[in-house]
Amino acid sequence: MESSGFQAAQPEVPQSRARWRQRLLLLAAFGPGILVMLADTDAGSIITAAQSGALWAYKMVLPQLILIPILYLVQEVTIRLGVVTKQGHGELIREHFGFGWALLSVSTLFLSSIGALVTEFAGIAGVGALIGVPPWLSVSIATVLLVWLGISGSYRRIEAVGIAVGLFEFAFLAAALMAHPSPAQLVQGLATVPVRNANYLFLLAANVGAVIMPWMVFYQQGAVLDKRLAKESVRGARWDTLIGSIVTQLIMVAVVVAVAATIGRVNPHRPLNDVQQIAGALTPFIGAVGGKVVFGLGMLGASFVASLVVSIAGAYGVGEAFRLKHSLNHRFGEAKPFYLVYTLAHVGGALLVILNVANLININLDVEVMNAMLLPIVLGFLLALEAKALPPEWRMKGLSSFLEKGTNLF
């Protein structure tokens, strides 16, 4: 009897091992999605969300929630393209549509990246100013750290450091709780979307541009390659992206709520164009710790991780379009052009902020609206590549097919 019981239990051993292998495979795919989504909530996005809360209170919360599945759908396509084709976004465009179209795509990436880097370094400068550090010093220190990290020749190190610093953004959730928002007003705001108001629509476009940006596509597809994810890792990569999509939008909601419950309630027309203004306006309501320390940590994490991801995406795009070596796993000597583009992007963005050229932080909303205008080009290339570069079994065949793919998360 004992022997029979022992024999009956035998098949459970390999099944248990298979389950553990599946779980490990799932977790091993995590990283690119979470990192790109933490970068998505960058300094420009935070300022846009703060403006939304100040001017429209809770009326901009619902659009943030609606953007979660849209953001996931866009980035999920990049997962399949990277894992199946083993090529970057720019490489695929050049291969299937020619160098001219690849150059157009990289041009949209360049415009988006330059605007983003200026706002990231302005955010870092603003955080430094909160504690009395001059912009030239805070931005210079950040630039040196970012360049050193980028040329270290290790994707895994960059991913680990980026996620660790990006977790500072959870400070925005604490700021929202410290603001004591009104649940009743929040529910009322969710049911009110003034789409007939031109000013609301302009800010809505800025919020869309602050959530879906060209550099996100280039980065995640390149990161999937640098992480060496296989087809068996797609389920884990989807979970990685879904969790990241939810987290980044909850952070955006937290900023909208924190400002709506304080500044938006008392002085809704107060200008909020930079970090010092936002922190200073929040301080009377949630205290010096909440206004400066908590908000400052969140902004620092957002700005640093976005600077890292944006510049890598730009270097990926240039390397892919011009067929240069473009992996973060290469040493500097093996991929000099790639690392030079990465370094020059940081230096250029830092200089624009240090020299305070035309007070560039004030163009933040215009940059986000520009991202929204570039979105059709980005989505057009994604859908075209999904149809041409992927084998039939990996393509999206209508909404029902995509929903079926989504169920593979479970």
3D structure, described in words:
- By secondary structure, the protein is an all-alpha fold.
- It has one domain: Hydantoin permease, CATH 1.10.4160.
- 77% of the residues lie in helices and 0% in strands.
- The longest helix is centred in the C-terminal third of the chain and has 47 residues.
For this entry, give a set of tags:
disordered N terminus; 19 helices; single chain; globular; Hydantoin permease; 410 residues; mainly alpha
Low-confidence stretches: 1-10
Count of discrete structural domains: 1
Q: How helical, in percent, are the residues?
A: over 70%
Cα end-to-end separation: 38 Å
Biggest pleated-sheet summary: none
CATH class: Mainly Alpha
Write the CATH architecture name: Orthogonal Bundle
Order of helices and strands: HHHHHHHHHHHHHHHHHHH
The fold-level CATH name is: Hydantoin permease
Beta fraction of the residues?
under 5%
Anisotropy-based shape: globular
Structural class: mainly alpha
Corresponding CATH superfamily: Hydantoin permease
Radius of gyration: 22 Å
The count of helical stretches stands at 19
